[in-house]
Design a protein that fits this description.
heterotrimer, A mainly alpha (103), B mainly alpha (163), C mainly alpha (358), B: 163 residues, mainly alpha, Four Helix Bundle (Hemerythrin (Met), subunit A), 2 domains, C: 358 residues, two-stranded antiparallel ribbon, 12 helices, 2 strands, globular
Chain lengths: 103, 163, 358
């Protein structure tokens, strides 16, 4: 646990996870999978917060991780409720099917 | 010993994240995401934050992903098909992700991530509680409880068949 | 030739794991026999009494039978998930086993009459406790593993490609995580009183007379815990997800032979874990209720074991006595009765602690 390089490698890992999450948000066609990739991005951010909090010595980063988790839970709940409502209307979960607001 | 565990969990996390974005079946993606979340919990513990590690399992892997799995299984979601005109989208997606990654990576290198824990770093639950309930964060804490209430009401209303 | 401290730690850890897992598996077989005999006596019949004296070899006969049965996998099942589900169930059950203390701290006896290679110098007089891992956030870890335990059931129910198992799996997991909330809330009062997440500290806070046990000091929390724990391990009266008359066999319909045995083992290990947790947290652990009674060394283990045995018998007793709840009644109790009671009790305990601490 005192390995000094952990913090830097953790930040790199968080970059990779965030990048993969972004890729998933753009590539996937199922709404629920897109939401899952957003959760992946949030996790990458959490890891960065924890790593930097360890480097800085304060606990503000960890408390922010706590709040990010709370917000992610709320967002997942409401997002999935919206998904259920969408499925009930159109019987499909394809992102391309919901294009009424496209410019 | 800790180093082996750290890099092994990092490899598992990246591997299952790739499965999340690459697998056609959303249920497989969900289970792969659970694996990612659990390996990240181990990494949090290795970074000296046991409270956040346990919270990650309880909240993310134990509650949010169960919710995802429920919705997937109840809506009986099938495998995705390939979209028409997929080639262009893939390329754009890959390019955008790579650019984002590079920009952020450059930013990280410039900021020069410091090494190792700062002296006096103590992320035990007691210290976390002291910071969380200090006047600095107390208002935010109470506000998140209101947020959860709003999300609860919103989710119930949105998912109802008729109001 | 004294081995290095790292090797010593490793040997002791392996020994602890061997003892705990061995005792658990033995207890699992014994529990199946005790349960069948006790239920039979409660129902005015005899139960297994042919295999061996008093039917004591019945678990072995069951094991041999299950071993030789054919392993059936439904053709349209998701193979990886079908195979992984019992593994996940047992893994989470065993993970929770790792952080519980199974008895008091003790010192190993000197036993100087044994040869040096059998009982080496570095073991004599060493103090320890049968607890495989000392985690800083012990109780929270158990809560987290309980949250992960839902996945074994969800995987099992979904992978078999059968509408009954899917419904059974979803119902069972909904039941599990609904009662997990009440379970977690019932712990909060104990943590506040003891001031620590570690189970050893909570046990030590109950030393002394038996009215200092948390079962009396925190009676509502104890009652909420017992109800929530019974629902958490899906025992009667909360076993609708596996009730044979309702939904065939619920999420484990399609499992046969050793995979079924693994799922049953996971359920019994969960039950034992919950009973051990209740003993440690609410019934004073290894402290006898009366300060004068002899309670050192093996006797402390005996007190602890007796309490766990009583709790396990209470689980069997409930199975033989109570009818099962309907699903909407089950969800009603979990959300609308247990959670408010636990939350109000936390408020009362917090007020008490704040006033007393002033």
């Amino acid at each position: 646990m005192d390995h000094p390089a952990f913090v830097q490698h953790a930040v790199l890992l968080s970059l990779v996870l965030f990048g993969l999450g972004t890729l998933g948000v753009f590539l996937r066609r199922n709404v629920i999978t897109v939401l899952m990739c957003v959760e992946l991005m949030l996790n990458g951010v959490n890891l960065a917060f924890v790593a930097f909090s360890r480097a800085a010595g304060t606990l503000d980063g960890q408390v922010l991780v706590f709040f990010v988790m709370v917000v992610a839970a709320a967002e997942a709940a409401v997002g999935l409720a919206i998904v259920i409502a969408l499925h009930r209307r159109r019987d499909t979960l394809d992102v391309d099917a919901f294009r009424l607001m496209r410019g | 010993m800790d180093a082996i565990l750290f890099y092994a969990c990092a490899a598992v996390a990246v591997g299952s994240a790739v499965v999340v974005i690459a697998q056609r079946n959303p249920v497989t993606s969900a289970f792969a995401l659970i694996v990612t979340l659990c390996s990240m919990s181990v990494i949090f513990a290795l970074l000296g934050s046991p409270f956040i590690a346990v919270l990650q399992v309880i909240v993310y892997a134990g509650a949010i992903m169960v919710l995802f799995l429920f919705v997937l299984m109840l809506l009986n979601v099938r495998r995705e098909e390939d979209a028409p005109g997929r080639g262009g989208r893939t390329l754009r997606g890959v390019a955008l992700a790579l650019v984002t990654l590079l920009v952020l990576q450059a930013g990280a290198v410039l900021v020069r991530v410091p090494a190792g824990p700062a002296p006096g770093f103590d992320a035990s639950t007691r210290r976390m509680a002291e910071v969380l309930f200090s006047p600095h964060f107390l208002y935010v804490f109470e506000a998140t409880s209101v947020l959860i209430l709003a999300a609860l009401v919103g989710a119930v209303v949105l998912a109802k068949k008729e109001l | 030739m004294i081995p290095s401290p790292a090797v010593q730690q490793l040997v002791i850890a392996v020994a602890k794991i061997a003892v705990v897992v061995g005792v658990l598996l033995g207890l699992f077989s014994l529990m199946t026999w005790i349960e069948r005999r006790s239920l039979a006596f409660m129902q005015y019949r005899l139960g297994p009494n042919r295999t061996g004296p008093l039917g004591i070899l019945q678990p072995i006969a069951d094991g041999i039978k299950l071993f030789f049965k054919e392993e059936v996998m439904p053709a349209a099942a998701n193979k990886v998930a079908f195979l992984a589900a019992p593994v996940v169930a047992v893994s989470t059950a065993l993970l929770a086993v790792a952080v519980l203390p199974y008895g008091p701290p003790f010192t190993l006896p000197r036993l100087d009459f044994l040869p040096g290679w059998l009982w080496p110098e570095w073991l004599k007089g060493r103090t320890g406790q049968i607890q495989i891992a000392h985690v800083d956030v012990g109780l929270l870890f158990i809560f987290a593993i309980g949250a992960l335990g839902v996945y074994g059931i969800v995987l099992a129910g979904w992978s078999a490609n059968n509408k009954y198992t899917l419904l059974g799996g979803l119902r069972s997991s909904a039941q599990m995580f609904s009662y997990e909330l009440a379970l977690g809330l019932s712990f909060v009062g104990l943590i506040m009183l003891a001031g620590s997440f570690q189970i050893g500290d909570i046990v030590d806070a109950q030393a002394g007379w038996f009215w200092r046990w948390n079962a009396f000091v925190q009676l509502p929390a104890f009652l909420v815990y017992m109800v929530a724990a019974t629902a958490e391990v899906a025992r009667i009266p909360f076993d609708l997800p596996e009730g044979e008359s309702e939904i065939v066999a619920g999420f484990h319909t399609e499992y046969s032979s050793m995979r079924f045995a693994l799922l049953q083992m996971a359920e019994y290990i969960n039950m034992i874990t919950v009973a051990v947790l209740a003993t440690n947290l609410f019934l004073g652990g290894w402290h006898p209720g009366v300060p004068g009674l002899p309670a050192d060394g093996l006797l402390a283990f005996a007190w602890w074991g007796a309490k766990v045995a009583v709790l396990l018998f209470v689980f069997i007793w409930m199975r033989g006595t109570l009818p099962r709840f309907r699903y909407d009644q089950l969800m009603h109790i979990g959300w609308k009765v247990l959670v408010p009671v636990a939350a109000v009790w936390i408020l009362i305990t917090a007020t008490e602690v704040a006033i007393a601490g002033r």
